Amino acid sequence: MDQQSRQIMKKKVEALTDLPTLPIVVLKLNEMLRNPSTSAQDIGELLQQDLVISARTLKLVNSAYYGFPRKIASITRAIVILGFQKVRDLALTVSVMDIFNGRSDALFSPEAFWQHALTAAIATETIAGRLRSPEQKDAFMGGLLHDMGRFLLARNFSHDYAKAVRHMQENGCPLVEAERAALGFDHGLVGEWLTEKWKFPSKLVRAIRYHHSPDVAKEDTGYVYLVHAGDVIARAVDVGVEGANPISPFSRKVWKHFNINRVKLDSIIRDVLGGLRTAQDFFDLIPKR
Ligand SMILES: [Fe+2]
Ligand SMILES: [Fe+2]
């Protein structure tokens, strides 16, 4: 696909009118967080307007993954303990998983998609903690949303997605390479178009765009590399979930940047598996169809 066809595809993504929108509560939450005078109580009151989102958010706050010794009974209390951003991120997690669902078909399974996305979120956050990355507070969302372009491609452009999957099966290459060969672009680019449309922070948009090609990223590289590592490690640990698709390799540049070696990698993987064992409440959010 040449530059012109890529532009046409971008226009098609931008023109999608049946694109799910984020719930009003989450949009308002984002707005409130930008306002420095917002209090924990303001946010608590806002989230109470959507009882499903607030109840599910509280369930995550109380999951074994965070390991608080006592039950946190209200959103206001959760904000005091975990901070605004974490509570916002958990509410966003609950919302995107709720809106991006649907039945599985031969080509794409939303259930497997979220299984991988959550594994990547936990892997990215775990790696950030282990490497003492300054990006730690944004790690979870980067991992969770990195493949959103794939969801959009599979569901809104299923004809193109089918072409890429066929190419992958015939050539035994990773999906991302098949997309580039069959379509001229990959789901990283589609994810960039989507999250730009959603006005997500530019750092997050970049990580989504370059998670399979971190070597060519020029800005926010620390964050892009982290999300790349989280994705690769998630693919390595969630055996069987995404089928027998070949895994795209760890970038040597990222490997070197984080000073990873086999021993360190094994111990990071052990930590990720440990994190996953405490995160059942997150996986319970996945709609099973
Ligand atoms: Fe991907
Ligand atoms: Fe991925």
Model description:
The protein starts with a helix and ends in a 6-residue tail after the last helix. Helix 2 (24-34) packs antiparallel against helix 3, helix 9 (148-156) packs across helix 12 and helix 10 (158-171) packs across helix 11 (175-183). The model has no long low-confidence stretch (mean pLDDT 89). It has helices at residues 3-15, 24-34, 40-48, 51-61, 75-82, 84-99, 110-130, 136-145, 148-156, 158-171, 175-183, 187-197, 202-210, 221-237, 252-257, 262-277, 280-283. It is 67% helix and 0% strand. It has 17 helices and no strands. The chain folds into 2 domains: 21-99, no CATH class; 104-289, Orthogonal Bundle (Hypothetical protein af1432). Residues 116, 120, 146-147, 231 line the site of one fe (ii) ion.
